[in-house]
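Budget justification aside, the reviewers requested a transparent look at the raw inputs and outputs of the sequence design task funded under Objective 1. We therefore reproduce one unedited record. The lines immediately below are the structure tokens for a 154-residue chain.
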């Protein structure tokens, strides 16, 4: 997940209030609107932005009366580290191994279908990462085997 996009989306107090309200349980638009005293159209736009980024997910659930309602929920845990010191500013998202994949899933849930190339590129990156991890593992196992063989020879 792109740190700049997260900071941009979360820079808005209303969006932080929405996230805070959703920590208890999934909610639908009118619940959020009423709780935060913000118009439903504005809430929908905030929810859309956060869902496209992958911070939120949505699902339809049957209601007691009428048609199903669209509920919003926090889609994943995100931890942001920010270090500010003399001569240095460091920021990163912790544990973002599959955040790009979550973002694509959010786009698909929002009806966007032009993500095939983006998804294919992501698969290639994951394959390259897997190969690299396997190489590192092989490097670690090679000296171990050599040491084991040397001790058996002695």
């Amino acid at each position: 997940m792109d740190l700049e996009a997260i900071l941009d989306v979360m820079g808005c107090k209303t969006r932080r209030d929405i996230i805070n309200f959703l920590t208890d349980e999934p909610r639908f638009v009118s619940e959020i609107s009423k709780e935060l005293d913000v118009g439903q159209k504005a809430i929908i736009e905030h929810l859309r932005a956060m869902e496209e980024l992958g911070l939120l997910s949505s699902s339809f659930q049957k209601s007691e009366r009428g048609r199903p309602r669209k509920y919003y929920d926090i889609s994943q845990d995100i931890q942001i580290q920010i270090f500010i010191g003399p001569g240095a500013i460091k920021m990163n998202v912790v544990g973002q191994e599959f955040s790009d994949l979550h973002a694509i899933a959010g786009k698909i849930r929002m009806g966007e279908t032009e993500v095939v190339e983006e998804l294919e590129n992501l698969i290639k990156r994951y394959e390259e990462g897997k190969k690299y991890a396997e190489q590192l593992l092989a490097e670690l196992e090679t000296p171990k085997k050599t040491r084991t063989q040397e001790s058996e020879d002695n």
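Residues 79 and 94 are 5 Å apart (CA to CA). The mean pLDDT is 85. Computational costs for records of this kind are itemized in the attached budget.
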